[in-house]
Amino acid sequence: METIMNLEELAELYPILNFDPDQDPIINPPVSDALPTKLVLCFFKDVVEKVASEYQAEIVYTFRSECGLFPVYEIEYLGKRVAFVQPGVGAALTVGVMEEAIASGSHYLVACGGCGVLDRDVAVGHVLLPTEAYREEGASYHYLPPSATVEIDPEIIGLMETVLNDHKIDYIKTKSWTTDALYRETLKKAAFYKAKGCLAVEMELSALAAVAEFRQVKFGQYLYAGDTVVPEGWDTREWISRVDVRETLFWLSVETCVRMEKEL
Prior knowledge:
By secondary structure, the chain is an alpha/beta fold. The protein has one domain: Nucleoside phosphorylase domain (Rossmann fold, 3-Layer(aba) Sandwich). The protein contains seven helices and eleven strands. Strands 5-9-8-6-10 form a five-stranded mixed barrel, surrounded by four helices. Helix 5 links the parallel strand 8 and strand 9. Helix 3 runs parallel beside helix 6 and helix 4 packs across helix 7. It is globular and about 60 Å long. The chain starts with 6 loop residues before the first helix and ends with a helix. The relative contact order is 0.19.
């Protein structure tokens, strides 16, 4: 007879399932009031540097890691202080930046980045609004109990849709596949997640959403369609060169942070 194991038994075999809800870990991020309540996690370093230069943005905080420094800049938007940072790439690093940001005062956070797409009919540069992310990375399992996905708060999705509609920007709501391993996006996995309703594949969303839920802060993310990850083969589609949509997503994120604090 087949034995059905409980979660504790499974965690013995698969340590990633060993979630501990303890709110008092051995190491905590440093607590301060250094940052504004509103923060944009912008994965586009070129945009971060351009905005910082053009607006003579002040550096108000610096995250440090062995791969370098991550300066956090501040600008004023509609009379409100908004911070922004390029938080690295990949779930583990960006989660560390997000944790320090929350501990330093940021409670309304919006990320903006690019993604691979699992359907080549989705045009490069098209805006995607992820509502749910499949958790095929490791960081989220330290923040939430095991589950297939983590959802973005529907109230936040509604606000983000309003922002997009206000600016008459076409977008597609979709699920996303978050993975740690860009060189392990196999045909089988791509087909599996596409069948689950994912148009996007990226490396951070499920982890960031899990941190937001655990820390009880507001969070959402804008994406834009980049390279294709499809059976016909990989195509970069020169997605990094889409300066227009990258800057647009940054400013949409700034506006959304401000409206989150005001309206939610």
